[in-house]
Write a structure and sequence with these properties.
The chain is of the alpha/beta class. It is 36% helix and 23% strand. Bound molecules: glyoxylic acid (GLV) and manganese (II) ion (2 copies). The site of glyoxylic acid has 4 residues, from loops.
Length: 420
């Protein structure tokens, strides 16, 4: 493979290792959006854009962009992007692999003086991961005009308002309730990402070509009971918010299992965030806050899940001792990738001599948001044991380099299709 030359492989390895250093030192692989480490990583990335001679900018949605302008005068743009923020104690590759692959791709195009009939831009999409404001994909939702005033005015647990954070990083929160002007010039948005699942590894495949991304919904649940002395309040006189919460957690798990079996489509639900108040051994829990994460490729199963969960909560409110409230805080619809781009990705992987398969994503991605308005598609590369969103996350540099070769072929194919 012409692209897989040693210099590209070591470039990818070096850049991933450099990015890894921008972390909360007490909790490796933690670079939350808008944190000090995130700002430092963005300065590093700006410098990398500069070193490649790219035009550096930040758009209204706070995405950090490095553009290689075409030699011909054109507004048309092809975007290759992903994200450099992480979940708490995340991994070294989720999002990062895609940004570094995009850097490597542009470096290769510059080094080889390849002419393109469109501008080619690397995007670090702002805040892809779910954050303390209860919203993921801030930058791509902003690009397509999907951030409303309620979301923009949210405060996080330290009271920082989302729109102020977007403005501080160079965005303009006033422009984000309708699509940004750039949208109309986009020919294609491409992303490379680790699979975060086990299919490619188990089937020993080089590349996954994503066909669809499931809907993602998140709900905040607040369970209000009565705090009290754990030694004196008798068992039949309690309103224990944690006990009521455990009933919801078990219900959600069993409901999702049943619906996933019935629908035979991707359907998963998780309660991974829970806050117990006051969280002390000698006090009956008075309040619990938790977040439900729901991902589905089936509209009817999603609707059934929400209906049954609401009924369960109503019943518990009628018959139990705690008051439960559930609020929908985020939604991303089920989307299919652009069919032409999927086919072109398949042709590109084949042309590189790489084994591949068309597949559905289990995780959410910025490409899902973008695909709502512009042609967008993405590829996966294998990751070890499918582990992701944990420190054990691992991908082979050679696999990232193979994926980057497919991106390059894809850009060349798009160049051929768009020649004037
Ligand atoms: C993205 O990381 C997701 O939560 O799917
Ligand atoms: Mn990601
Ligand atoms: Mn992630």
């Amino acid at each position: 493979m012409e692209f897989g030359i040693e210099s590209n492989i070591s470039y990818i390895e070096n850049k991933i290792n450099e990015l890894e250093k921008f972390t909360d030192q007490k909790q490796p692989f933690t670079r939350l959006v808008f944190s000090k480490e995130f700002y430092e990583a963005r300065s590093w990335l700006k410098n990398e854009y500069d070193k490649l001679g790219l035009l550096v900018s930040t758009d209204e949605a706070g995405n950090l962009i490095g553009t290689l302008n075409s030699k011909i005068d054109t507004d048309k743009i092809v975007i290759v992007g992903s994200h450099i923020d992480t979940v708490p104690s995340g991994g070294k590759f989720d999002g990062i692999a895609g940004v570094v692959a995009a850097l490597c791709l542009i470096k290769h195009i510059k080094d080889n003086d390849i002419d393109l009939p469109f501008n080619l831009a690397v995007y670090d999409y702002l805040g892809e991961e779910l954050n303390d404001w209860g919203i993921s994909c801030i930058g791509t939702r902003g690009m397509i005009g999907a951030l409303n005033q309620e979301i923009l005015s949210r405060g996080n647990s330290s009271g920082n308002i989302l729109k102020h954070e977007i403005n501080k990083i160079g965005g303009n929160s006033k422009s984000l309730t309708k699509p940004l002007p750039t949208i109309k010039n986009i020919l294609a948005c491409l992303e490379l990402h680790i699979e975060q699942g086990k299919i490619l590894e188990q089937k020993k495949l080089d590349i996954g070509i994503v066909r669809s991304i499931p809907s993602i919904s998140r709900f905040n649940v607040e369970v209000n009971g009565q705090a009290g002395h754990s030694g004196t309040i008798l068992m039949d006189q309690r309103a224990d918010a944690l006990v009521a919460s455990s009933e919801i957690i078990t219900f959600v798990n069993r409901l999702a299992l049943r619906l996933s079996q019935e629908s035979n489509q991707h359907f998963v639900s998780t309660i991974g965030k829970i806050n117990v108040l006051p969280n002390a051994a000698a006090i009956i829990p008075g309040k619990v806050e938790m977040t439900i994460d729901l991902r589905s490729s089936s509209k009817s199963s999603r609707e059934e899940y929400v209906k049954e969960l609401q009924e369960k909560i109503e019943l518990m409110n009628k018959t139990g001792t705690c008051k439960i409230e559930m609020n929908n805080i985020a939604n991303a619809p089920y989307v299919e990738m652009d069919k032409e781009l999927v086919k072109l990705f398949k042709d590109s992987a084949n042309a590189c001599g790489l084994t591949n398969q068309i597949m559905d994503s289990g995780a959410g991605h910025d490409t899902a948001q973008l695909s709502r308005l512009v042609p967008a598609a993405m590829i996966f590369i294998p990751c070890k044991e499918g582990l992701s969103h944990c420190p054990e996350e691992h991908a082979e540099i050679l696999d990232i380099s193979k994926g980057t070769a497919v991106l390059l072929k894809m850009v060349e194919n798009l160049a051929m299709l768009n020649h004037t």
